[in-house]
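Aggregate trends can hide what the representation actually does to any particular protein. The sequence in question and its structure tokens are set out directly beneath this paragraph.
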Amino acid sequence: MAPAQTPLHTSSSSSSLAARLTLNDLPPSSPPRTSPDIETPLPVKRGRDLWDFDIHGTPLDPISTDGPEQSSPVRGTPAERAAINRRKGQKKRNRTLQLQQSLSEGERTQFIDDLLRSLEEKNIVFGDVMLHVFDPQLKRGEVRWRGFFEKPGMATTILNFWVDPSNSSTARAEVRNWAINYCSEVLREEAHIITESRYLQSTGRAVNADFVLDFDIEHISKFLHSSAGASMKLLSSFATSTRQLVNKSVTHAIRKSKVVTFAALSLLGQFSQRNNWSHRVMALYLYASGAQRQVISVMSHIGITESYSHLTSKVRTLLARAKRQPRLLRAPFLPPDTLPPASGFGPYIFDSVETGKPSTPVEGSEPMSLPIDSELLLQKLEEIVSIQYGTLRELSQSMCLASRKLAFTGLFVGAYDNINFLTRTPEQALGHTDVMENGTCATIWKLWNASPDDMKIADLNISFNCAPPLSLDDLLPTPAELALMDKCLIHCLLRILVMHGGPAFTVFQSRLDKTLPVTEDKIKPHKTELHPMPAWNIDESTIIGQDDVVHAIYNELCAQDSPLWSIIAKILAGDQLTIARLRSLANIWAGHEGDFAGFGWGVWILGLFHAKIADAHGFLVTHWGIPNKGTRNPGCLAFHNTVLHRNPIVLTSLPPFRTVCDLIFVSLYACVLHCFLLVSGKQTLAEYADSINGEWDTLVKHAQAVYEQYANGSLVDSLRFLRAVEMASEKPIHPLPGDEIFENAVLFIRDRLITRELADAVKAGDSGRVLLVLKLFAFSFQGNGHTKYAHEMLHLIHNITHVWPKPMRKIVLDNWILFPSGNPNSGVECDLMQEHMNFWIKTFYQAHGSGASWKWLEMIAPCVGILRDLAAAMRETLGTDIGVRHAPVNLSVDIPILMQNLTEFEVYKIRGHQFEPEDGAMVPNVITAGIHALSSGTDNPLDEYNKSFLHLQARRRLQPIIGERIAGPMFVSEGRTMTVDPMEHQEGRTIDGPAVGDESDVLMELVHALEDDNATLPRLSAEDVALDMDLGDSRFVFEMDERDSFDEERINGPQGVDLRVEHYDD
């Protein structure tokens, strides 16, 4: 007989159900089990009190009453009484419903007990009923739904009862084992789903910048929670204690989410080796952070990263026939010129993920010994499906490909610099010695705000031919530029006061920002994308090396494939030596070589960072003084260095650039703040701040007074002129006019303010302000002995003023300052960026030991930028950006000490101090000296420059012997008549200009280029090439209280001397 189909729970009463149930009506079950009798629960006995009886003495039903209810007195209005009655009525109804529910629960319990007793009488266990209901083959879905799942939480309650500690241990163990096995299957299924989604796989994805920077742990965590919610919940539970559930912390929860996510990524990597995206990125991060091979190898063994051999491996060739293994066709076929030589066809290395075979090459395998003819070689080439590289090499190739894509547009700038490092040998032996390696690294970036129409070589050639010679008026600032320069330097004084004067002056920061001078050449905010290039073992310090480097750059970029290759100009930037060598190449080949070999296509940009280094070196030498003279020269840098107890400095062994900058700027800030106290008549900065009372106009007036009285080079010239006149008289007066210590101190502030203005203008990206400073550098470099940089200033100013077309001038001024971060006030000199790259290449990512080679540097150099971006992104994501530098030195005492010494020795007061011959000479006014050097005499540097320029103009007009001359009319510069002797290859044709056959000017240019570069400040550490070195001056901020007191000394200027601002051209 078939089992009864009527659901058990549809019976209306226990008696009728018992009457219908027979043994045949129930499903087959296991043999009856002995079970204890089910006892009927006894009714609760209630005590009887007085109120258990009614007024007639009859006992009341204990269920239907709770005793007499005391009524409250009649109070309130009728409406209030009605509301009270309604509440009482509702209360009675609720009590009645509770009583009825209690009765129904009791009946339900009694029915279930009877049902269980009936099952026991029939030798049917309750498990048989459960099997009958939940067996999918019996199709009792409606019963299951209505009996278990229709009411939410019932199934969960039953499962909780099964694992309750009151249940037997055997039962709990069985349920627990089932739950574990079920969760294991769920987790395995979720891992399979994630693997099939290919989200965490690197196969088929290009290892480029997106591959690295798209690795966002927060996005990955969201993906895992959406695709593997059960797995992530179990892992989170495994990492959360009961106390943590009670004491919840947002910070701790975020950190724990990252830990759980990384744990899931490691486990998914073990589920399938194809889930290796995180492993490859983490290996790159560890390498970018300086981890050695041992660390990466250990991390790979615990499933966090890939192995070091996979990270840095060379070519791994996959060889198989596509018919047998079509899955290998997933990778693109590479051209035969990228394949290894024929001898490399054995042994073959297969991908362990696809084939299941070990991916480690067999040691001692011999290459193919049989001769390979052309047909066999062709057959082998057809078998090659793809070539795989290590992660670093794939990333390097992707970065080079991105550079080539940019170069194809033609709108890019290139900068390069030499990279030098010493390869040391651990043991000295024959042929094994330390070697100084010299090479070159380069970087390109996209031109911002430029178009090909503004970069035509023909337009550049026309403008070059039309350019007049450089005049002194072109170098001297115009009256409008002088007014702007005065405004900029006064604002620089205000910036120093607000930034370094203490917290009381920070209230003026908003007004300071609003009044910052801005020129029309200010670069608009944008982000500069940098593309480092491979390193080459080419020494660019020679002219031949320069030619090799230029050809290596454009060959690497495949720039010749661009349709704009022969149409638009190419822009290159570098230090003074680089630009001088490039210009020498253009001078050598002018009139001899055409096309690309003639270098007439180039626009050369001098790096501003090296100009700052030369300026700092010149300032150090000029204002250093004599160290052992002590207080007889208290305004010199040597005395300041001694007072501050800094490391001794010897000019014959120059200190690093950052050391010099720190000393110079600390001294400048102390001098400026001291002068503000002098013009205000206050003794401390706290008193000065209180006297200002928040009045910005008063602060500006004081800054103008400081500029006119203590940063005025014309004042120094006037005092020295009066002294020279008096000394030349028959009876000179004593003391002589002026004060040499005061004069040197005034020049100290004036010269350093100009350098500070250049640094701030670069950070702001204001090319107009930068150009104003460079005009002054043309004189100061000439005055302090840096004649090479003075010569470069002449070229740069001449190019911007006359030689370059206006669109090209705009392009140069918009792109010689970079913004790698894209943030405002974060401009960086292009040559500083290259120096920064070189430092990290040669000191951080350089291989050590036997792995140190130019092949390695060639591979790792393009990855430097992206590796540092990855390291920064990881530190920001993980919240552990502790940096690699020590905490800034506390300089809260340095500036007050210098200010106290300035007051004590009355440095900024005219007292008639005169140096003895052995105490040190006066500091020259380098700007005035430079003007005299460029304007006096017949063979001054300016005349020599113009002579070379005119000669180059004449040579550029000639038809080159080899190649084609760039098209363009041959205009003659105004105001000059030039004659050129006829050349043999131009019979019957004459050109006005200097004699082309005279090579003296070319030789003079070569002499300038081939001379050893001036001694410069070395860059030895990351601080010397830090991109934020100028922003780091905020560490000089200090606080002063009333205890910091100085002697009041105010200077109004000497009597009879005009303290009005006198400009530099007077």
